Amino acid sequence: MDRPALADFLRRRRESLRPEDVGLPAGARRRAPGLRREEVAGLAAMSTDYLTRLEQRRGPQPSEPLLASLARALRLSGDERDHLFRLAGRNPPGPDAGSGFVAPALQRVLDRLDDTPALVLSWLGETLVMNRMAVALLGERSGLRGLARSEVYRWFTEPDAARRLYPQEDRDRQSRAQVASLRVAYGVLGPRSRAGEIVHALQRESPEFAELWRRHEVARRFEDHKVLLHPQVGALELDCQALFTEDQSQCLLVLTAPPRSESAEKLALLGVIGTQELQPDAPASPVRTSPTGVAGEA
């Protein structure tokens, strides 16, 4: 671990960013350039004290998940992220390592989307980051670990939870689409990749998956229109738009409703109530929650 170089890199990257670059309000005039340490720490879900120690050359070696969070908070490119890992004495993650890295271009678009659900997915169906509206609509997914990070894995191993958002009549089509999309990733990454790990695990654990896998269907696309069932506001008819990175490895998914439609009103309601649970026969009141994430390491 190269502490002096790591400290200098973190500080210079932090000072090169402005609040609007990461979706934060500019606020009052700043005495120093760039983001404040507490702002970067908040974006990375770590303690300000720990970031301060890293920038002062006295912090312990960061873990790989923490480095991935820092790379995302500082909007690092792929090359910059790999450089950060090497400075910290860690091996850079491979293309399918599930490190949580988000393509900066997709992150910049996501930062500017606040009033409609949006999330970034890997080609294994892993939710890398999601905005508050996506959390309110879909539930928190970005904190999952292991194979459960993959939506296709959860779809076949936790069907009661994973499929509850979809109408019963649409679930068979969704099952085929999930398998066909995984087949694309498997073909690109190979049997010894994380895609291969997911395939092998599902073949053991889910007869339904095994049967669909044998069909050898291949497709990678998102439906332009879908119906989702929310436990508080009911059915929402949403249009789905996908923006891919150049290598197709990540996708920004944006869900919208036609203006003045019933579904648009339901989305607006979700924007007010957030992720709180509504009690029957009781008035709803907004609840402010604190984001959870990786605590500062000691």
Can you put this structure into words, describing what you see?
The chain is 42% helix and 11% strand. By secondary structure, it is of the alpha+beta class. It folds into two domains: 3-87, lambda repressor-like DNA-binding domains (434 Repressor (Amino-terminal Domain)); 104-273, Beta-Lactamase (2-Layer Sandwich), CATH 3.30.450. The chain has a five-stranded antiparallel beta sheet. A hairpin with a 4-residue loop joins β1 (118-122) and β2 (127-130). It is globular and about 55 Å long.
Q: Layout of SSEs?
A:
Layout: H1 3-16, H2 37-44, H3 48-55, H4 64-73, H5 78-87, H6 104-111, E1 118-122, E2 127-130, H7 132-138, H8 151-157, H9 159-162, H10 171-189, H11 194-205, H12 207-213, E3 225-230, E4 234-244, E5 250-256, H13 262-273
Antiparallel strand pairs: 1-2, 1-5, 3-4, 4-5
Helix pairs in contact: 2-4, 4-5, 7-13, 8-10, 10-11, 11-12
Pfam families: HTH_31, MLTR_LBD
Domain HTH cro/C1-type: 9-81
InterPro entries: Cro/C1-type_HTH, Lambda_DNA-bd_dom_sf, MLTR_LBD
